[in-house]
Each structure stands twice: as structure tokens, then as C-alpha cells.
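Milestone 3.1: sequence recovery, worked example.
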């Protein structure tokens, strides 16, 4: 999964494809409603009579509102409400749901338009995520690397770590429980995670477990290695005239705005003052926006402070839950077993 990205930067034809899907949803919603109306009016003719009365009252209400006749408007509203209740009672008495004659939306927030006002609805953002999700091999990766396939067998219970006072097994159980709590309370807590540990102890695997759960719940997730992240940030800063500048700008915006940003293998990139300033920008902006970030690194806290400045270190220490994962190198263990 190194360098893989769900980056939401889509082309115009892909954007138009999503818009067409929303048009199809609205057409299908109307088609299904018309079918239900035809069915139920045929079976319960009185419902059609009530429907015609309600439509007539709606027209009268419009005229009363236009001429400022508040008294008549109130009476019309009362009558309309009574007829609607009678309509609902007829439906339920014949075994139909109370909302059978209402449009059924996949997304009630935007009523299947994809937009709330001028802003993209979360369902539209997820449609973009799904498009990229399907276009990359991340789906195959997350089918393997998820909580269903997470194994505690690679973590020993034979010794106690002096720093944590826990065995590798007890420690990873605690971190998995914390990760699941992070997912459960994702919408309201706006937490951030820092996974620390040596190569091969399962940091990326656990990050992928979290990514899959949140994607399945409809959240937007961007996964980037640190090298890929800083490549995008460099192009966004200095590559205004390159051919893919609009795509890079889109990527940058989604890095700031996605529900969860995963920065994997922080510390493997070639560090310099630009990298440090951009890392601070991303961390700080996402904290201000109350957007969750998950960082994995082989570096110690001391090395984070040394490599990325006191400002970056302070933001992480103050705003991230620090999870130190330790144990044997799982990759090496698997490689030996496959010999």
C-alpha cells in the first residue's frame, strides 16, 4: 500500500458521471413513487380523492398567502393537516407504511441532489471517495487488512516491556480497543492518533483497519505515505504552472478537509525546513478544522522533536493519543514461515 492514495482529485468526466448518477436517482425516486401511487389509488380509491382535495387546498393556501389572508391560511392548514392524517390512517389500516405516498430518498439530507445549498453533501463526497476507491487497488488491500483478519498471534505474552509495564499482546489488545473506540466516537470526539513503533509491528495494518471501518461508515479517508504527502505539498507550493496543477490543488484541499488523513511512515522522507513547515501546516490546519489525523512513524518522540521542530512536537503531544506498538517484526516472521 506504500504510496497509495484515495485523493478525491477527479476529472471533469468523472465528476459529471457522479452528477448523472444523482439525476438517475431522482428519476428513479419519481418512477417508484408513481408506481406506489398507481397501486395504492387503485386499491383504495378514497386515497385519490383525499389527494385531490389536498392538492386543491395547497393551491388555495398559495392564493391566501399571496393576498395576506392569514385567517383563511390557518383554516386551510388545519384542514390539510386533517386530510393528511386521514390519508395516513387509511394507509396503515390497509397494511401500508405511513410514508408510502412520500418520496423515498437514499439521502434525506440532500434529497438525492448531492448538494445542500451550494455545498457538497457528505453522500456526494463519499461518491467521489468510492470512485477513487474502486479505481485503485486499495479495495483489495483493505479486504486483507481489516479487523476481521487482524491476528493477535504475532504478539508475545512472554515478557513485559519496561516502559509500558505490558506484554506485547496486552499492549496491542489495549491499542485495538482504543482504535475501535476512536471509530465508534469518530463523529463527535475529533480525536487524533500517533502509532509509534519499529518496522513490521503492525502500524500500517492497524491504520488500514481503521480506514476500512470509516470508509464503510461513509467517511472520506485519505491515506498517504509521508513521501507522497510531501510530494503533493511541494507541487502545490511550487508547481503552479505544471499541467496537473488543478489536480494537485484539489488534492491539497482534500488533504485539509477529508474526515480522516492517514500519514504513514513519517520520518522516511528526506527532511528539510520546507517539510517541517508543511507538516506543521497540515497538522495545525486540521486541528483548527477539527478533522482527525492518524500518523504512523518509526521515530521516537525525542526524534520527532529533533527532526520536526518544537512546534510540531508540541501539537502532537498536546492533541494526539500516543500508541506505542512493540513486538517482533511480523513481516520477517511471515517471511520465515513461508520459506
Amino acid at each position: 500500500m506504500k504510496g497509495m492514495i484515495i485523493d478525491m482529485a477527479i476529472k471533469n468526466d468523472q465528476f459529471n458521471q457522479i452528477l448523472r448518477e444523482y439525476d438517475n436517482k431522482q428519476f428513479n425516486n419519481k418512477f417508484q413513487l408513481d408506481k406506489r401511487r398507481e397501486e395504492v389509488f387503485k386499491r383504495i380509491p378514497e386515497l385519490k380523492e383525499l389527494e385531490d382535495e389536498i392538492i386543491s387546498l395547497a393551491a388555495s393556501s398559495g392564493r391566501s398567502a399571496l393576498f395576506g389572508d392569514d385567517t383563511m391560511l390557518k383554516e386551510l392548514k388545519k384542514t390539510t393537516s386533517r386530510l393528511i392524517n386521514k390519508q395516513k390512517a387509511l394507509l396503515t389500516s390497509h397494511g401500508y407504511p405511513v410514508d408510502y405516498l412520500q418520496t423515498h430518498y437514499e439521502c434525506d439530507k440532500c434529497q438525492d441532489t448531492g448538494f445542500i445549498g451550494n455545498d457538497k453533501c457528505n453522500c456526494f463526497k463519499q461518491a467521489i471517495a468510492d470512485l477513487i476507491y474502486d479505481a485503485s487497488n486499495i479495495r483489495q488491500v483493505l479486504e486483507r487488512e481489516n479487523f476481521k483478519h487482524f491476528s493477535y498471534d504475532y504478539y508475545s505474552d512472554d515478557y513485559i516491556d519496561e516502559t509500558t509495564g505490558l506484554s506485547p499482546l496486552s499492549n496491542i489488545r489495549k491499542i485495538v480497543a482504543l482504535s475501535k473506540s476512536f471509530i465508534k466516537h469518530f463523529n463527535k470526539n475529533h480525536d487524533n492518533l500517533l502509532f509509534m513503533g519499529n518496522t513490521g509491528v503492525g502500524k500500517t495494518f492497524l491504520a488500514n483497519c481503521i480506514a476500512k471501518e470509516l470508509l464503510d461508515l461513509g467517511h472520506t479517508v485519505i491515506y498517504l505515505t509521508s513521501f507522497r504527502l510531501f510530494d503533493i505539498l511541494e507541487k502545490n507550493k511550487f508547481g503552479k504552472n505544471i499541467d496537473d496543477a488543478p489536480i494537485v490543488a484539489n488534492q491539497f484541499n482534500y488533504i485539509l478537509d477529508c474526515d480522516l488523513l492517514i500519514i504513514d511512515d513519517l520520518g522516511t522522507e528526506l527532511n528539510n525546513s520546507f517539510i517541517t513547515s508543511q507538516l506543521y501546516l497540515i497538522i495545525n490546519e486540521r486541528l483548527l478544522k477539527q478533522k482527525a489525523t492518524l500518523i504512523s512513524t518509526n521515530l521516537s518522540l525525542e526524534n520527532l522533536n529533533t527532526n520536526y521542530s518544537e512546534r510540531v512536537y508540541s501539537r502532537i503531544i498536546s492533541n494526539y493519543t500516543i500508541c506505542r506498538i512493540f513486538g517482533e517484526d511480523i513481516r520477517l516472521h511471515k517471511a520465515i514461515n513461508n520459506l
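The CA atoms of residues 197 and 326 lie 6 Å apart. Residues 1-8 have pLDDT under 50 and may be disordered.
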